[in-house]
Input
Amino acid sequence: MSGVTDLSRKIEKQLPGELVGFMRLAGGMVQGKGQQLCLVGGVVRDLLLGRENFDIDIVLEGDAIDLARELSDLKPGKITTHPRFGTAKLQWDHWSVDLTTARAETYAWPGALPTVRPAAIRDDLFRRDFTINAMAIELNSGRYGRLFDVYGGQNDLKQKHVRVLHEKSFIDDATRIWRGLRYEQRLGFRLEPTTLRWLKRDIACLDTVSGDRIRCELELVLQEAYPEKILNRARELGVLSRLHPALQGDRGLAEKFEQARRMRLPGLSLIGLYLALLAYFLTREENERLISYLRLCKSAARTLRDTIDLKARLKSLDDPGLTPSRVYVLLHGYSTSAVAANFLAGDSPVACRYLDLFLKELCYAKPTFGGEDLKKLGVSPGPRLKEILDRLLEAKLDGQAITKQDEKDLVRRWLGGEYSGGDA
Ligand code: CTP
Output
């Protein structure tokens, strides 16, 4: 068996038994039908690297939807099909597997979505981004576990190289520029020198890709364990400034991302915070352009707008004599990520202390004495009730009311003659 890499033992060792059983089942089903069935993409790369990855992508030289239907009879669960793309997803218990009809792709113009046609596995692998993602493992019973590596992926894994399969790869699909940086930094690899040359040559092709697709890539970057490494490399290569020319990448970004990970505030979106830190030094207008280019969703756009807004108002927090209730009034209503971004990136130590206090304590403050208690004291629902609740919160924040009884006493005092004597 010289020249054949048998990965069946690696598969058994690294993948959960349920998925291994499924692949063997599928391999048995296609056996004798003259169809080749393969495990492909990131999971093959990660099997060879010994990294955990249970994202099972299976490609069939034949109709993947038919096969998925046959399999779903044996594995009751959910089946979702996309006949236009020849793909199916099977889900059962907490497992999920993607099955795709092997296809070749052609691009009508740079950045266009590809035109696809059914093809052989070899062509399906050739349409992929990098050699390390263009390997397959055969699943047909007779050949189960054999590595199919026609483009040198295994060698590139050994060399720690991220290499495209052909010279036009980044022109066809410039999102691969971001993908390349992501794999390079995630795996501790380097872009292979010719690939790096082509990447630099084709950076302008990023402008041929829709903002939506770039946003998806940026989200994937921000979901990585150390996004700052990818953003830094993107800055070095002039890729980051394609998101927005003013995004030069602050040298302190890595440190701020590190601190962001340590914050662990309940309800805080780390990705939102990373994005806010990345955009922190933009002006209001630049920020708006970034939001519309990336077509950010409402909540991400709000985080960025809040961040820049609050940055402009930080001066009002640069006063050591502020009471906690004043700090609350100034910060209440801003998204948590925006407050956190200003805490990490703002340059006034006094303001930062208040931002920290707000994030750790003030934002959770709530009077124990509530609307229902006030109603029992005879306060009718309406602006007066709201005003009393606000004053109670203020008193609580400033330490003038600690227990529920303190709050009740205060309310009674404020109500004075209005107090009807109800027992709250
Ligand atoms: N792919 C590609 N070009 C793209 C996107 C994807 O060639 N622009 C191919 C790659 O071969 C990739 C596969 O489609 O391996 C699946 O894409 P995705 O799920 O994004 O990649 P994974 O390798 O699974 O990535 P990750 O490890 O980040 O999950």
